[in-house]
Amino acid sequence: MTQPTSAEAAPATAPAPPATTTASAAATTAVQATAPADATATAPANVPTADPSAPSGRSVLVTGGNRGIGLAIARRFAASGDRVTVTYRSEAPPASEGFLAVRCDVTDSAQVDQAFKEAETAHGPVSVLVANAGAARDRLLVRMSEEDFTSVVDTNLTGAFRVARRAVRGMLRAGHGRIVLLSSTAALHGSPGQTNYAAAKAGLVGFARSLTQELGARDITCNVVAPGLTETDMSRALTPEQRRALLSTTPAGRPGTPEEVADAVAFLVGAGYVRGAVIPVDGGAGLGH
Questions:
Q1: What pLDDT, in 10s, does the model give residues 59-93?
Q2: Are strands 128-131 and 100-103 parallel, antiparallel or unpaired?
Q3: Residue 156 contacts residue 2 (beta carbons within 8 Å)
Q4: Cα(109)–Cα(159) distance, rounded to whole angstroms?
Q5: N or C, which end of the chain is more exposed by having fewer CB within 10 Å?
Q6: 66: alpha, beta or left, given left = phi > 0 and alpha = psi -120 to 50?
């Protein structure tokens, strides 16, 4: 079981449940660590607040921004005074959030183009793109169909290509842009039962570094955030045994929060000289790798 872009699934040891698609995709890893399984550390309070030093009023688009990590990212930018558009596939975010919400399936180029047109009409050219939408279909390789593999790659990797390609048009005209791709610690270390997911998320690293070399001179940055075990709806559905196993590989002794992932995204958007980087947000599970 995996939560796309929040990296909190136990390694698969039996046929997985039906395909899961979420607004935020990531996976767990088999990294060896020594943290005690019964660690009781708790997450610090982390309420998004406006950063007076951050530029405000940017047009920000977050794919899969209707729940989980994507919603936390959207809130983080809105709290800084940015104009935020979120895309969703099936369930819109609450209207009270104040975002422009646009239905968009990132596997459809026409829908991607329409989402950007609506964002541009309402908020101006997109200067910050966070590619967070994702999907997972966890199965052991011997039970994985070709469609299981290709559909996950189409959403997680090719979907990021579609939205980045569309965003870059306006960024090139503006001579400035920030792109952050949501990967997973599964991309860095692998994860049993997730060959499709890990391959797609690993592809984002090469994509970001190639795009950095193509567009770095135009002041367009592209970086990657790789969440580990993160406290979301999917992680809360884990069995106690799965949760203990995952925490045993996490030196922090607790899951991360969506807000902590959002902090890393906000840092990268504000760090103009950080380019082609991969930032793990995993409580030390990968020891920085």
A1: 999 999 999 999 999 999 999 999 999 999 999 99
A2: unpaired
A3: no
A4: 9
A5: C
A6: alpha
Taking residue 17's Cβ as centre, other Cβ atoms within 10 Å add up to 12
Instruction: Give the H/E segment covering residue 100.
Output: strand 100-103
Contacts of 36 (CB under 8 A, 6+ apart): 248, 253
Count of alpha carbons within 13 angstroms of residue 49, beta-carbon side: 5
20 Cβ partners below 8 Å, 6+ apart?
1, 2, 4, 135, 136, 137, 138, 234
CB atoms within 10 A of CB 146: 8
Q: Which residues carry out catalysis?
A: 197
Amino acid letter, residue 287: L
Q: Is the pTM of this model over 0.85?
A: no
Domains of the chain: 20-31+54-281 (3.40.50.720)
